[in-house]
Amino acid sequence: MNIDHYRVAPNSKIDLSAWDPNDKRLFDGSKKAGEAALPALNKRLEALQELLYAEGKHKVLIVLQGMDTSGKDGTIRHVFEGVNPQGVRVASFKAPTPLELAHDYLWRIHQETPARGQIVIFNRSHYEDVLVVRVHNLVPPEVWRRRYDQINAFEQQLTEEGVTILKFFLHISKDEQKQRLQERLDKPEKRWKFSTGDLAERKLWDEYMAAYTAVLERTSTAHAPWYIVPANRKWYRNLVISHVIIKTLEGLNMRYPEPEAGLDQIVIE
Ligand code: AMP
Ligand code: MG
Hints:
- The protein is an alpha/beta fold and 269 residues long.
- It has a single domain, classed as P-loop containing nucleotide triphosphate hydrolases (Rossmann fold, 3-Layer(aba) Sandwich), CATH 3.40.50.
- Helices cover 43% and strands 12% of the residues.
- The protein contains eleven helices and five strands.
- The protein has a five-stranded parallel beta sheet with strand order 2-3-1-4-5, sandwiched between helices.
- It is globular, with a radius of gyration of 20 Å.
- The structure holds adenosine monophosphate (AMP) and magnesium ion.
- The site of adenosine monophosphate (AMP) has 9 residues, from helix 5.
- The site of magnesium ion (MG) has 3 residues, from loops.
């Protein structure tokens, strides 16, 4: 899979209406075949994560962003199925608490960044501070406007300290969101996920797309790239994200630590 297709080059102009949420050009097969391809990728990711943990050198940060129902939770469940929970952690960012609001917006974020040998998945992130915050005018424009540069500098600093950063925008259509919200209403086991507040956000769809466009144009860098993932099809979304993560981990050229000398002579009595 040539996943570079979905990578946003630094300083690109982005027209999200030209990115098809139904696109599946990198997989030549049915939904059934696509779903069947995932377990092998899960196994590869499991092995790579084990190596990352054993080597204890690299730190990996995966950022998931997208509208409500875009599949952030589902991605975590499916893409990371089978990985050893020791060494992988999810950090979910909700509306900030009073304590968090009393600090700068990166304070709560920095605390959750990965340690050596760890993968941390951000379910929402510091990008909310230029998304929901921008759309709802939670801070004045001059405050959110300078955050793009601040975020780039923050991510650059993390990279220089050994963090590998991958950022995924789960791109669904407005119509797909309607169906997924309806499903939350219709299925008793999904109702807990329905929030009437999501409907208010849905009304601001165009404003959110404008805010996402600014994020993709201004914060996709060589060291912390954004991928625009076609996410109307859950199976395709999972394949694309799995491939990007696997390819990135393979590129780290990790090795198991050198064992102690003389292990070959040992006889266990
Ligand atoms: P969920 O992901 O469905 O659990 O919802 C989390 C909610 O928290 C979303 O509505 C986000 O927009 C909101 N949220 C996350 N970060 C921030 C932030 N920095 N400022 C305001 N709201 C936020
Ligand atoms: Mg929600």
